[in-house]
Design goal:
The chain has 292 residues and is mainly α. The chain has one domain: MetI-like (MetI-like fold, Orthogonal Bundle). It is built from 12 helices and 2 strands; from the N terminus they run H-E-E-H-H-H-H-H-H-H-H-H-H-H. A two-stranded antiparallel sheet has the order 1-2. Helix 8 (186-195) crosses helix 9 (199-227) and helix 11 runs antiparallel to helix 12 (262-291).
């Protein structure tokens, strides 16, 4: 018979975590929902007034919002598949037996981009891609290539954000998928490799079912990260040139902190949260249905 844990002990262990969740997560969310239902502009003398769903209607009918969502979706559809492909390739290589020292060194080096904050990555990119003094253009000059305006050209700036996002988060994908590969029973892998020399068949029918939880986790986290991507493009390009790198989080910052329309910015943030939750549920239902 299992002894029942005293209620006071349960409260003592769970209480601080629940309180922190309420203070850090739930309370700001409820406050944002409340503000999204009000007209609240810091530059206006009038007090906040309830407007119902007007802010949401204004957001959903605003072409600027959908353009920012389109840029964010484009970033996601380009960078995340590349991250998954490169991360899976790195994970498979590191999962193979042998070269222990090389694998340890590679794992340590993969941590460096993940440990670098978004803002630092953006500043690093801004310095390295400078048209006159950047190290990238200096290296291109060695091969006779003229200096490229990475930051000042809309297309180049967008591509630069994609490349830097891939550089920063491919190691994260690789490490998560490597952890997923470590859950495959060795005897099953060995038996499969004896039956076929095709690494693709081993991956498809033996390793992939064990990778599904890792893939779902990566997709959910990378979707949320892409939708809230702000620090790196803001420090790198300030959302420019023009609106070339004004992703949805950069747009929300501009509306809230530079136009001071807190109600409208809150509605944009809540819509972005709803999209993230919807996509997370979609990933879970699709991938686990494929496994079943």
């Amino acid at each position: 018979m299992t002894a029942q844990v005293p209620r006071k002990t349960v409260i003592a262990f769970l209480g601080p975590a629940v309180a922190a969740l309420l203070i850090v997560g739930i309370a700001p969310l409820l406050y944002a929902v409340w503000k999204s239902l009000h007209y609240f502009n810091l530059t206006k003398q009038a007090q906040s007034r309830f407007v119902g769903l007007d802010n949401y209607i204004n957001v959903l009918t605003d072409i600027t919002f959908w353009q920012a969502m389109g840029r964010t979706a484009t970033l996601f559809l380009i960078s995340v598949p590349i991250q998954l492909a490169l991360g899976l390739l790195i994970a498979i290589v590191l999962h193979r037996p042998g070269l222990t020292f090389f694998k340890t060194l590679t794992r340590l080096s993969l941590v460096l981009p993940m440990a670098t904050t978004y803002a630092v990555v953006g500043l690093l990119a801004q310095v390295m891609l400078n048209q006159k003094y950047g190290v990238v253009n200096q290296m291109l000059g060695w091969f006779g290539v003229d200096a490229i305006n990475f930051i000042g050209d809309p297309t180049n700036a967008f591509i630069a954000v994609i490349i830097w996002d891939i550089w920063q988060w491919t190691p994260f994908v690789a490490l998560v998928l490597l952890a997923g590969l470590s859950t495959v029973p060795p005897e099953i892998e060995e038996a499969a490799q004896l039956e076929t020399k095709s690494q693709w068949l081993v991956l498809r029918y033996v390793q992939l079912p064990f990778l599904i939880p890792s893939l779902v986790a990566v997709l959910i986290l990378r979707t949320a990260d892409t939708l809230k991507l702000f620090d790196m493009p803001f420090t790198m390009t300030r959302g420019g040139p023009g609106a070339a790198t004004e992703f949805i989080a950069v747009l929300i910052e501009r509306v809230g902190n530079r136009q001071f329309d807190i109600g409208l910015a809150s509605a944009q943030a809540i819509i972005m949260l709803a999209i993230t939750i919807f996509l997370a549920r979609l990933y879970i239902r699709f991938f686990y249905r494929e496994v079943n």
